[in-house]
Specification:
- The chain is of the alpha/beta class.
- Helix content is 39%, strand content 17%.
- It folds into 4 domains: 47-238, Rossmann fold (3-Layer(aba) Sandwich), CATH 3.40.50; 244-303, no CATH class; 317-378, no CATH class; 398-545, Trna Endonuclease, Chain: A, domain 1 (3-Layer(aba) Sandwich), CATH 3.40.1350.
- It is built from 19 helices and 17 strands.
- The strands form 5 sheets. It has a 5-stranded parallel beta sheet with strand order 4-5-6-3-7.
- Helix 4 (118-136) runs parallel beside helix 5, helix 9 (254-264) crosses helix 10 (268-279) and helix 17 crosses helix 18 (452-465).
Amino acid sequence: MHPKIYIKDFIQIIIMEGSMEIRRKYPVGIQTFSRIIREGYIYVDKTDLVWELAHYATFVFLSRPRRFGKSLLTSTLNSYFSGDRELFEGLKIIGLEQEWKQYPVLHLDLSGAKHMPAEQVQNELGRLLKPYEAVYGRDEAETTPGMRLSGLIERAYTQKGLQVVVIIDEYDAPLLDVLHEGNRLKEMREVMQEFYQRLKMLEPKIRFCFITGITKFSQLSIFSTINNLMNVTMDPKFGSICGITEQELVTTLKEDIRVLAEAYEMTWEDMHQKLKLRYDGYRFTKIKEEVYNPFSLMKAFHQQDVANYWFESGTPTFLIRQLQHYRTDIMSLERLEVPASGFDQPTEAMQDALPLLYQSGYLTIKGYDRDTETYTLSIPNQEVRIGYVSGLLPIYSGLKDYEVQVGFAAKFWLALKRGDIEQAMREMQAYLAGVPYVEGFKQKLKDAATAEGFYEYTMYLIFSMLNVYARTQVKCAGGRVDMVVWMPDAIYVFELKVDSTADAALAQIDSKGYAIPYQSDGRRVVKVGVKMNAETRTVENWVIEE
C-alpha cells in the first residue's frame, strides 16, 4: 500500500518507491480543492491570497475569463471556511489563520444554468439549494429561490451559532445567452434579482459572500442593492489569485518544463520561451504582473504537448453573437488604447463588444499610462490569437480552419520560413481564388467602401491562423500601412491596391516612409506592393523590394 502523498510546495517532482517512478499528477479538469490535496495533484499555493480575500470585505466580486481557476478558488474558500485545517498543512495560510472556525457554507455553482429559459433556471436554483435544505430544513412557505436562500441563511445562522458563508460561482451563466433578447433578458434578470436581493438584508448574518463570473451586470441586485460590494477584479492585491505567475512557473514548475523540453528535444530555455509565447500574457491590473492560463499550462504538462487547449470546446457562441451584433472589426483588436470606462463597464450597458472581449479573456491589459489614465489592450498570447481566429474564420471567410491549415498552410508557411516571398505570394494567389464572399465580408466591404477591406481581412485571418504576427492599418509618420507581418528573420511591409498597380503600391511604401520604422530592427525589411483583382477576388500580381 502506497503512503499518502500531499504535493504542496512541489519542490520534489518525481517520487521514487523502490524502483518505481511516480509522475506528477496534473489537475486537468479537477476543480475541487480537497480532491487535489488528498489525491496528490499539483496545487500551486495561492492560500495567502485566499486568506487576504477572505478578510478583505463582507461582499466580494471577482471576474476572470473561463478556465482560469475561478471554480478552484471558490472550492478553496469553501474548504477554508468549513475549517478543514488538515487540507492546508504545509501551505502559506497555516501561518496566517489561527482560529479555523467551521462556518456554515452555502456553495452554489450556476454553470449548469446555461441555455435555459427563466422557469428552468428557477428549477435549477431550487435543485442547488435542496442539499442544504436537507441539512438545515425548509419552510414550505418559501416558494421562490430567493425566499429559500434567505430561509437557509436564517436557519444555518441559528443552528450553528455562526455567521454564514455564501459562495456563488458563475453567477452570470444564465444571462450570457440572452444579452440582446429583450423579453428573455428581462425575465432572466427578474429571476436572478429575486434570488440575490435578500443578501444585503441578511448582512449581519453573513460572514463572507463571494461571487464570481465572467461578466459584470450592473442592473442585477448584486450590483445595485448591495452597495457595499467590493469588486476586486482589477485590484492589484489579487491580480495573480487566478493564473500562474512567471515566478511560480520557473520555481515550483521548473522541473515540469525540463521534462517537457526533453520530450520536444529542446533546451529548458527554449521550452520556457515557447510556453511563455503560447500561454502567458494575461494581466488584470494597472500593475505589471502577467499570468499564464493555468488550464492550458497544466494540460500541456499533462499531455506533454504544447497545443491550443483553451478553445477545445470552441469559441463561445455568446461571444460570436456579440461580435456579429456589434459588427466588430477584429483587425482593430491588435492594439487598443482606452480608458477603464471603455472596457470595465456593465455588460448590458455595452455599446460595442470591447468589454465582453476583455472580460472573456480575448483581450487583456498590456500597459497603463498614469498620466493619461489610459490602458493598452491587446490579444494575450498565441493560443488566444489562433483560437479566436479559428472561431471567426468560418464567419468572415466561409472556410473552416482546417481548410486553411491543410495544403495551403504548409506550403505558405514553409515559403515564408525560408524567406521565399515570391513562392508565398503564389500560394496566396492560388488560395484566395477559392475564398468566397460571405455575409461578414459583404458587410465589411460596405463599411469600407472598398474591396481592399476584403483582402485585408482575409490576409489578416490567414496570417493569424498560421500563428504569424500581423497587424493591419499600422500608424506611422507618413500615414497608415495596410499590413505589417513579423517573421523571425524578416519584417514584411504590405500595401494593397485594387484600383491601381503593384508598382504604385510599392511607390507608396517608399514615398510615405512606411518601412522606415523597422529598419533599425536588425531583421530584413521586405516591401511588397500587391495588386488585387476585384473580379477574380485574388492576387493579380506583386512587386517585391528589399
